[in-house]
Design brief:
Largest sheet: 5 strands, mixed
Order of helices and strands: HEEHEEHEHHHHHHHHHEEHHH
Strand content: 5-15%
Radius of gyration: 38 Å
CATH topology of the largest domain: Conserved hypothetical protein from pyrococcus furiosus pfu- 392566-001, ParB domain
Strand order of the largest sheet: 1-5-3-4-2
Number of domains: 3
Structural class: alpha/beta
Distance between the termini: 69 Å
Mean pLDDT: 76
Oligomer: single chain
Helix content: 40-55%
CATH class of the largest domain: Alpha Beta
Number of helices: 15
Length: 335
Protein backbone atom coordinates (compact mmCIF):
# COMPACT_ATOMS: atom_id res chain seq x y z
CA UNK A 1 0.00 0.00 0.00
CA UNK A 2 2.84 2.38 0.87
CA UNK A 3 4.54 1.76 -2.50
CA UNK A 4 1.26 2.42 -4.35
CA UNK A 5 0.80 5.65 -2.44
CA UNK A 6 4.27 6.86 -3.36
CA UNK A 7 3.75 6.05 -7.02
CA UNK A 8 0.41 7.93 -6.98
CA UNK A 9 2.09 10.96 -5.45
CA UNK A 10 4.73 10.91 -8.14
CA UNK A 11 2.07 10.58 -10.81
CA UNK A 12 0.26 13.69 -9.56
CA UNK A 13 3.58 15.52 -9.47
CA UNK A 14 4.28 14.62 -13.08
CA UNK A 15 0.79 15.66 -14.19
CA UNK A 16 1.19 18.96 -12.41
CA UNK A 17 4.52 19.56 -14.11
CA UNK A 18 2.91 18.88 -17.46
CA UNK A 19 -0.08 21.08 -16.67
CA UNK A 20 -2.42 18.12 -17.17
CA UNK A 21 -4.59 17.02 -14.24
CA UNK A 22 -6.05 14.10 -16.15
CA UNK A 23 -2.83 12.13 -16.28
CA UNK A 24 0.60 12.42 -17.83
CA UNK A 25 2.08 10.75 -20.89
CA UNK A 26 3.33 7.85 -18.79
CA UNK A 27 -0.22 6.53 -18.30
CA UNK A 28 -0.47 3.21 -20.10
CA UNK A 29 -2.08 3.45 -23.50
CA UNK A 30 -2.45 7.23 -23.45
CA UNK A 31 -1.95 8.29 -27.08
CA UNK A 32 -4.18 11.35 -26.80
CA UNK A 33 -2.53 14.40 -28.34
CA UNK A 34 0.37 12.37 -29.73
CA UNK A 35 1.75 12.40 -33.23
CA UNK A 36 4.14 10.12 -35.08
CA UNK A 37 7.50 11.39 -36.29
CA UNK A 38 10.49 9.67 -37.92
CA UNK A 39 12.71 8.09 -35.31
CA UNK A 40 15.82 9.79 -36.72
CA UNK A 41 14.37 13.19 -35.78
CA UNK A 42 14.79 12.37 -32.08
CA UNK A 43 17.89 13.01 -29.97
CA UNK A 44 18.70 11.96 -26.40
CA UNK A 45 17.87 14.59 -23.79
CA UNK A 46 20.61 16.65 -22.21
CA UNK A 47 18.77 16.45 -18.90
CA UNK A 48 18.33 12.69 -18.81
CA UNK A 49 19.04 11.76 -15.16
CA UNK A 50 20.07 8.20 -16.00
CA UNK A 51 23.79 7.64 -16.52
CA UNK A 52 23.57 4.06 -17.75
CA UNK A 53 20.95 1.72 -19.15
CA UNK A 54 20.68 -2.04 -18.83
CA UNK A 55 21.20 -3.41 -22.34
CA UNK A 56 19.38 -6.65 -21.52
CA UNK A 57 16.28 -4.72 -20.44
CA UNK A 58 16.41 -2.62 -23.59
CA UNK A 59 16.52 -5.83 -25.65
CA UNK A 60 13.48 -7.15 -23.76
CA UNK A 61 11.65 -3.90 -24.44
CA UNK A 62 12.62 -4.12 -28.12
CA UNK A 63 11.05 -7.57 -28.33
CA UNK A 64 7.86 -6.22 -26.76
CA UNK A 65 7.80 -3.37 -29.29
CA UNK A 66 8.19 -5.85 -32.16
CA UNK A 67 5.12 -7.70 -30.93
CA UNK A 68 2.92 -4.92 -29.57
CA UNK A 69 4.31 -1.65 -30.89
CA UNK A 70 5.00 1.40 -28.70
CA UNK A 71 2.08 1.72 -26.30
CA UNK A 72 3.30 4.81 -24.45
CA UNK A 73 4.34 7.87 -26.47
CA UNK A 74 7.60 9.64 -25.71
CA UNK A 75 7.56 13.12 -24.24
CA UNK A 76 9.70 15.50 -26.30
CA UNK A 77 10.39 19.17 -26.89
CA UNK A 78 11.80 20.93 -29.91
CA UNK A 79 15.57 20.89 -29.79
CA UNK A 80 16.85 24.33 -28.71
CA UNK A 81 19.72 24.21 -31.25
CA UNK A 82 17.97 22.43 -34.16
CA UNK A 83 14.41 23.34 -35.12
CA UNK A 84 14.07 20.18 -37.23
CA UNK A 85 14.89 17.84 -34.33
CA UNK A 86 13.28 16.94 -31.05
CA UNK A 87 14.92 16.34 -27.67
CA UNK A 88 13.66 13.41 -25.60
CA UNK A 89 12.42 14.43 -22.15
CA UNK A 90 10.96 11.08 -21.08
CA UNK A 91 11.21 7.77 -22.93
CA UNK A 92 14.83 7.46 -24.08
CA UNK A 93 14.86 3.74 -23.31
CA UNK A 94 11.81 3.23 -25.54
CA UNK A 95 13.58 5.19 -28.28
CA UNK A 96 16.67 2.98 -28.04
CA UNK A 97 14.56 -0.18 -27.99
CA UNK A 98 12.59 1.04 -31.02
CA UNK A 99 15.85 1.36 -32.96
CA UNK A 100 16.70 -2.26 -32.12
CA UNK A 101 13.21 -3.27 -33.22
CA UNK A 102 13.80 -1.36 -36.49
CA UNK A 103 10.78 0.89 -35.98
CA UNK A 104 10.83 3.86 -38.35
CA UNK A 105 8.24 6.17 -36.81
CA UNK A 106 7.48 6.70 -33.15
CA UNK A 107 4.57 8.32 -31.25
CA UNK A 108 5.49 11.43 -29.30
CA UNK A 109 3.82 14.19 -27.32
CA UNK A 110 5.44 17.55 -28.03
CA UNK A 111 5.53 20.06 -25.19
CA UNK A 112 7.04 23.52 -24.88
CA UNK A 113 9.33 23.01 -21.89
CA UNK A 114 12.26 24.95 -20.50
CA UNK A 115 15.46 23.34 -19.18
CA UNK A 116 14.24 23.24 -15.59
CA UNK A 117 11.00 21.52 -16.54
CA UNK A 118 12.91 19.08 -18.74
CA UNK A 119 15.08 17.98 -15.83
CA UNK A 120 12.18 17.87 -13.36
CA UNK A 121 9.98 15.77 -15.62
CA UNK A 122 12.82 13.43 -16.60
CA UNK A 123 13.63 12.89 -12.93
CA UNK A 124 10.02 12.31 -11.82
CA UNK A 125 9.29 10.00 -14.73
CA UNK A 126 12.27 7.79 -13.89
CA UNK A 127 11.46 7.83 -10.18
CA UNK A 128 7.93 6.71 -10.99
CA UNK A 129 9.31 3.76 -12.93
CA UNK A 130 11.95 3.11 -10.25
CA UNK A 131 14.57 3.11 -12.99
CA UNK A 132 17.20 5.26 -11.26
CA UNK A 133 20.11 4.09 -9.16
CA UNK A 134 20.56 5.92 -5.82
CA UNK A 135 23.42 7.99 -7.23
CA UNK A 136 21.47 8.91 -10.38
CA UNK A 137 18.58 10.04 -8.20
CA UNK A 138 20.96 12.04 -5.98
CA UNK A 139 22.63 13.65 -8.98
CA UNK A 140 19.25 14.68 -10.40
CA UNK A 141 18.32 16.38 -7.13
CA UNK A 142 21.70 18.11 -6.97
CA UNK A 143 21.39 19.46 -10.51
CA UNK A 144 17.95 20.88 -9.83
CA UNK A 145 19.29 22.65 -6.76
CA UNK A 146 22.52 23.88 -8.34
CA UNK A 147 21.31 24.80 -11.82
CA UNK A 148 17.78 25.98 -11.04
CA UNK A 149 18.02 27.19 -7.43
CA UNK A 150 15.54 24.65 -6.07
CA UNK A 151 15.26 24.43 -2.30
CA UNK A 152 15.08 20.99 -0.72
CA UNK A 153 11.51 21.67 0.40
CA UNK A 154 10.33 22.68 -3.07
CA UNK A 155 12.19 19.82 -4.70
CA UNK A 156 10.71 17.29 -2.29
CA UNK A 157 7.21 18.52 -3.11
CA UNK A 158 7.90 18.33 -6.84
CA UNK A 159 9.09 14.72 -6.81
CA UNK A 160 6.68 13.48 -4.14
CA UNK A 161 9.37 12.65 -1.58
CA UNK A 162 10.11 13.87 1.94
CA UNK A 163 12.66 16.63 2.47
CA UNK A 164 14.77 14.29 4.61
CA UNK A 165 14.80 11.71 1.79
CA UNK A 166 16.07 14.32 -0.67
CA UNK A 167 18.73 15.52 1.81
CA UNK A 168 19.93 11.97 2.58
CA UNK A 169 20.15 11.06 -1.10
CA UNK A 170 22.20 14.16 -1.94
CA UNK A 171 24.64 13.29 0.86
CA UNK A 172 25.50 10.08 -1.01
CA UNK A 173 27.36 12.18 -3.57
CA UNK A 174 30.01 12.80 -0.90
CA UNK A 175 31.02 9.14 -0.75
CA UNK A 176 34.52 8.14 -1.95
CA UNK A 177 34.55 6.93 -5.60
CA UNK A 178 35.22 3.23 -4.72
CA UNK A 179 32.16 3.21 -2.45
CA UNK A 180 30.07 4.89 -5.16
CA UNK A 181 31.14 2.13 -7.54
CA UNK A 182 29.89 -0.55 -5.13
CA UNK A 183 26.63 1.38 -4.76
CA UNK A 184 26.15 1.73 -8.52
CA UNK A 185 26.83 -1.98 -9.04
CA UNK A 186 24.18 -2.89 -6.49
CA UNK A 187 26.64 -4.54 -4.08
CA UNK A 188 25.74 -1.87 -1.53
CA UNK A 189 22.27 -0.45 -0.96
CA UNK A 190 21.44 3.19 -0.28
CA UNK A 191 20.97 2.22 3.39
CA UNK A 192 24.48 0.76 3.53
CA UNK A 193 25.87 3.86 1.85
CA UNK A 194 24.20 6.24 4.31
CA UNK A 195 25.69 4.26 7.22
CA UNK A 196 29.15 4.63 5.66
CA UNK A 197 28.97 8.38 5.09
CA UNK A 198 30.79 9.37 8.29
CA UNK A 199 32.66 6.12 8.80
CA UNK A 200 36.42 6.13 9.36
CA UNK A 201 38.19 4.38 6.47
CA UNK A 202 34.91 4.11 4.55
CA UNK A 203 36.41 2.35 1.52
CA UNK A 204 37.94 -0.51 3.52
CA UNK A 205 34.80 -0.78 5.61
CA UNK A 206 32.57 -0.92 2.51
CA UNK A 207 34.62 -3.78 1.10
CA UNK A 208 34.33 -5.61 4.42
CA UNK A 209 30.53 -5.13 4.39
CA UNK A 210 30.31 -6.59 0.89
CA UNK A 211 32.68 -9.48 1.67
CA UNK A 212 30.80 -10.47 4.84
CA UNK A 213 27.35 -9.78 3.42
CA UNK A 214 26.41 -7.52 6.33
CA UNK A 215 22.93 -6.02 6.40
CA UNK A 216 22.28 -2.32 7.06
CA UNK A 217 21.82 -2.71 10.85
CA UNK A 218 25.02 -4.72 11.18
CA UNK A 219 26.84 -2.10 9.13
CA UNK A 220 25.55 0.69 11.38
CA UNK A 221 26.73 -1.16 14.50
CA UNK A 222 30.16 -1.73 12.95
CA UNK A 223 30.49 1.95 12.04
CA UNK A 224 29.52 3.03 15.58
CA UNK A 225 32.09 0.65 17.05
CA UNK A 226 34.88 2.01 14.85
CA UNK A 227 33.79 5.59 15.50
CA UNK A 228 34.00 5.08 19.29
CA UNK A 229 37.45 3.61 18.86
CA UNK A 230 38.52 6.57 16.75
CA UNK A 231 37.10 9.13 19.18
CA UNK A 232 38.72 7.52 22.23
CA UNK A 233 41.45 9.82 23.64
CA UNK A 234 44.92 8.73 22.66
CA UNK A 235 47.15 7.71 25.58
CA UNK A 236 49.43 10.51 26.63
CA UNK A 237 53.03 10.01 25.68
CA UNK A 238 55.31 9.84 28.72
CA UNK A 239 58.01 12.46 29.01
CA UNK A 240 61.64 11.44 28.74
CA UNK A 241 62.37 11.66 32.48
CA UNK A 242 59.39 9.51 33.47
CA UNK A 243 60.25 6.91 30.82
CA UNK A 244 63.85 6.79 32.05
CA UNK A 245 62.67 6.39 35.63
CA UNK A 246 60.38 3.50 34.68
CA UNK A 247 63.24 1.85 32.84
CA UNK A 248 65.61 2.19 35.83
CA UNK A 249 63.02 0.78 38.24
CA UNK A 250 62.31 -2.11 35.87
CA UNK A 251 66.03 -2.89 35.71
CA UNK A 252 66.30 -2.81 39.49
CA UNK A 253 63.28 -5.03 40.16
CA UNK A 254 63.36 -7.18 37.05
CA UNK A 255 59.65 -6.46 36.49
CA UNK A 256 57.53 -4.03 34.49
CA UNK A 257 57.00 -0.74 36.35
CA UNK A 258 54.65 2.17 35.54
CA UNK A 259 55.02 5.64 37.08
CA UNK A 260 52.21 8.22 37.00
CA UNK A 261 52.29 11.78 38.33
CA UNK A 262 49.09 13.64 39.25
CA UNK A 263 48.45 16.84 41.24
CA UNK A 264 51.81 16.79 43.00
CA UNK A 265 51.48 13.11 43.88
CA UNK A 266 51.24 9.98 41.82
CA UNK A 267 51.68 6.24 41.86
CA UNK A 268 54.22 3.54 41.10
CA UNK A 269 52.75 0.29 39.81
CA UNK A 270 54.82 -2.88 39.82
CA UNK A 271 53.50 -5.75 37.71
CA UNK A 272 54.21 -9.32 38.87
CA UNK A 273 52.99 -12.66 37.58
CA UNK A 274 53.12 -14.88 40.69
CA UNK A 275 53.87 -14.88 44.43
CA UNK A 276 57.52 -15.77 43.89
CA UNK A 277 57.97 -12.54 41.94
CA UNK A 278 56.12 -10.60 44.64
CA UNK A 279 58.45 -12.03 47.34
CA UNK A 280 61.41 -11.05 45.20
CA UNK A 281 60.14 -7.47 44.88
CA UNK A 282 59.58 -7.14 48.62
CA UNK A 283 63.07 -8.40 49.39
CA UNK A 284 64.60 -5.96 46.90
CA UNK A 285 62.66 -3.05 48.38
CA UNK A 286 63.89 -4.10 51.86
CA UNK A 287 67.44 -3.97 50.45
CA UNK A 288 68.05 -7.60 51.35
CA UNK A 289 69.24 -8.43 47.88
CA UNK A 290 67.51 -10.52 45.22
CA UNK A 291 65.73 -13.64 46.42
CA UNK A 292 66.88 -16.76 44.61
CA UNK A 293 64.01 -18.64 43.13
CA UNK A 294 61.33 -16.71 45.09
CA UNK A 295 60.33 -17.77 48.62
CA UNK A 296 62.97 -19.78 50.54
CA UNK A 297 62.27 -23.36 51.44
CA UNK A 298 63.81 -25.47 54.22
CA UNK A 299 67.22 -26.82 53.20
CA UNK A 300 67.61 -24.30 50.37
CA UNK A 301 69.63 -21.72 52.36
CA UNK A 302 73.01 -22.65 50.89
CA UNK A 303 71.72 -22.68 47.31
CA UNK A 304 69.90 -19.37 47.83
CA UNK A 305 73.01 -17.72 49.26
CA UNK A 306 75.07 -18.98 46.35
CA UNK A 307 72.60 -17.63 43.76
CA UNK A 308 72.29 -14.31 45.62
CA UNK A 309 76.04 -13.89 45.65
CA UNK A 310 76.31 -14.49 41.91
CA UNK A 311 73.41 -12.19 41.00
CA UNK A 312 74.35 -9.03 39.09
CA UNK A 313 74.14 -5.85 41.19
CA UNK A 314 71.37 -3.37 40.24
CA UNK A 315 72.32 -0.55 37.92
CA UNK A 316 71.03 2.11 40.30
CA UNK A 317 70.61 2.08 44.08
CA UNK A 318 67.33 2.99 45.75
CA UNK A 319 68.60 6.38 47.02
CA UNK A 320 69.52 7.42 43.47
CA UNK A 321 66.11 6.30 42.20
CA UNK A 322 64.48 8.39 44.92
CA UNK A 323 66.34 11.41 43.63
CA UNK A 324 65.24 10.54 40.08
CA UNK A 325 61.59 10.34 41.16
CA UNK A 326 61.80 13.79 42.75
CA UNK A 327 63.46 15.27 39.68
CA UNK A 328 60.90 13.79 37.28
CA UNK A 329 58.00 14.99 39.43
CA UNK A 330 59.52 18.44 39.77
CA UNK A 331 60.02 18.85 36.00
CA UNK A 332 56.46 17.68 35.31
CA UNK A 333 55.10 20.18 37.83
CA UNK A 334 57.08 23.16 36.48
CA UNK A 335 56.44 22.09 32.85
Amino acid sequence: MMADKKRTNLGRGLSALLGDDTGGPTDSGDLKGSKEIPIEFLQPGRYQPRHSMDESRIEELAQSIRENGIIQPLLVRRHPADENSFEIIAGERRWRAAQLAKVHVIPVIIRDLNDQQALEIGLVENLQRQDLSPLEEADGYKRLMDEFAHTQEALAKTVGKSRSHVANMIRLLGLPPPVKKLLDSGELSAGHARALLNAPEAVELAREVVKKGLNVRQTERLVRKLQRRKDAPAPKKKDVDTAALERDLSNLLGLKVAVKFKDGGGSITVHYKDLDQLDDVLQRLNQRGPAAGGRKRAGDGADAAKETKSAAPPKKSLPKLQIGIRQAASKRKTG
